[in-house]
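Weekly puzzle thread! Below is a chain. First person to post its structure in token form gets bragging rights.
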Amino acid sequence: MKIGLISDTHDYIRNIQRAIREFNDKNVDIAIHVGDFTDPITIESFKGVKLVGVLVNNDTEFPGLTSAFDKVMIVFNPSFSLLILVTKIRVQCDSDTACSRILLLPI
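Winning reply:
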């Protein structure tokens, strides 16, 4: 199973679209967003992606954000634990963004 990990998207829709393309190109089975969506439109950008997400310190518009999760059928879990055993971790950084995409490759 391939898992994509993303965080701190902060309404940067273009970068989200790039990450989704990368997830699709790499046949990622599920993506995990570890917070800082910041706005419901960001969550709606993930429509069609199998995604688990949590809200953190910059996700202050809680009612709108949780409603957006419901609209796009994303699993929202306010607190979850995940243990992943991996043999390779690839961190991809872009010149115009911080290092916010990690591709975990399966054992």
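Puzzle host: Confirmed. Bonus trivia for everyone else. Confidence is low (pLDDT under 50) at residues 97-102.
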